[in-house]
Design brief:
By secondary structure, the protein is of the alpha+beta class. It contains five helices and 19 strands. The strands form three sheets. A ten-stranded antiparallel beta barrel has the order 9-10-11-12-13-14-15-16-17-19. A six-stranded mixed beta sheet has the order 4-3-8-7-6-5. A hairpin with a 4-residue loop joins strand 12 and strand 13.
Length: about 325
């Protein structure tokens, strides 16, 4: 960004239980949070969630301002985005503390290397309190019409007088990984390969997971059958993102919806932070929890669900059975 040398198993079935029937909207990445608006009960914290969504936008606006000010070569405007005693740690480990030092640092960069054509892409925003938030993402160098990953960033924000300012910025290099890293990362999911099914109240879902591209990806296909409705077929790809050092997934459903999942492991559970866009333009968020119970069974549950900022209750836990090895 400022160097002188110069964005599953979250996998499976998004299943919403409403009344006595099972509404299946799978897989989880694009539709995990999407219950039926008429049947789901809004969570009492939906107002708080809307407020958090507004804070997300405010922080993204500050990150966009940093990108624009770097491109304009205005060192004073760049440093003004930090708190009075804010710090910046560059990819070489050099520390710059205070607006005066920051402005001097940026001025030196602009004088030596010109305006900085970078794009900061936030991938995650977490709130530690109503006054402190952390954003993580990738710094992309603009080269013509293309952008290339340059470094990773972590920004700690403080809310001062209703303005989110950077109190600490850290930039770390993206280290190329061995070509075997992607296959090694997916080994924890080799138990998923095969066919699986889940049924309830006349609705059913069947998933088949297969290795793809030299075992660097897992390709999942889903068939969802609801009473009186045409068979729905969706697909999902699970792979390894070396810029984040984590498993990720992409989902595309037959109605035109699509989504993305970011995976991490907690004890014996897979946690998948999923976001999606529906064919009607609505957006969904959820955390999907997958836990292997035994060799031929695992459980799935979707929590912290929301659609367009409105919170919905967690789904019931669903058990999924293996059909073939």
């Amino acid at each position: 960004m400022i160097s002188k040398n110069n964005s599953g198993v979250g996998l499976l079935v998004a299943v919403t239980f409403a009344a006595a029937s099972l509404t299946m909207t799978m897989p989880v990445d694009a539709k995990a949070a999407k219950g039926s608006h008429s049947k789901a009960t809004p969570h009492p914290n939906s107002t708080t969630q809307s407020a958090t969504q507004n804070e997300d936008k405010a922080i993204c606006a500050q990150i966009n301002a940093l990108t624009k000010n770097l491109a304009s070569g205005n060192a004073s405007s760049v440093s003004a985005l930090w708190t009075e005693n804010g710090t910046y740690i560059d990819e070489d480990g050099n520390v710059f503390r205070g607006r005066s030092a920051l402005e001097k640092r940026f001025s030196s960069v602009f004088n030596e290397s010109g305006k900085q054509q970078f794009e900061l892409t936030p991938e995650k925003i977490s709130f530690l309190s109503d006054k402190v938030a952390i954003s993580e993402g990738t710094v992309l160098r603009k080269e013509g019409t293309k952008s290339k990953p340059q470094t990773r960033f972590t920004l700690v924000f403080q809310n001062q007088d209703d303005t989110w300012l950077i109190s600490q910025a850290t930039e770390t290099p993206i280290i190329p990984l061995e070509s075997t890293q992607s296959t090694e990362a997916l080994k924890d999911l080799d138990w998923l390969i095969g066919s699986w099914k889940a049924e309830r109240n006349g609705s059913s879902v069947r998933m088949t997971a297969e290795w793809a591209a030299n075992k660097r990806f897992i390709h999942c296909t889903y068939e969802i059958q609801k009473p009186g409705e045409p068979l729905q077929k969706d697909i999902q790809i699970i792979g390894y993102d070396p810029t984040k050092d984590e498993l990720v997934s992409w989902h595309f459903d037959s109605t035109g919806g699509f989504g993305y999942g970011s995976w991490y492991k907690r004890d014996n559970q897979w946690m998948v932070e999923s976001t999606g866009v529906e064919s009607d333009g609505s957006t969904s968020r959820a955390i999907n929890i997958i836990q292997s119970l035994e060799s031929n069974t695992f459980s799935w549950q979707s929590v912290n669900r929301s659609v367009d900022g409105m919170a919905f209750a967690d789904t019931n836990e669903l058990k999924v059975q293996r059909v073939t090895q």
